[in-house]
Amino acid sequence: MGHVNKVSHVFTLGHVAEMLGEDEEWLFEVAEEMDPEDGQLWVVGVGEDGVMAFTDDGIENLKDLIAIHKDTPSIIEKRRQALAAMMKPKTEESDEI
Description:
The protein has helices spanning about 15-20, 25-30, 55-70, 75-85; strands at about 10, 40-45, 50-55. It is mostly helical.
């Protein structure tokens, strides 16, 4: 038999933020670095955009990321700047003098 998924429950971002005593918006930005393999996923309901959630392992991985971000708070700001640069429309310069 192949890989068996042993996840029986997940915790929403809001719940995890409360559990860890962290700001939910800041935690969302930290957790954006995670993938499903890291234990971060989206739960979608009828008429909802979805909510970020974490497995037990995901919470442990998130704790590691929190420590990294607290040691180097500029990580999020650098990512914001990089995203803004990618989204900024390029201006075309004229060759005319």
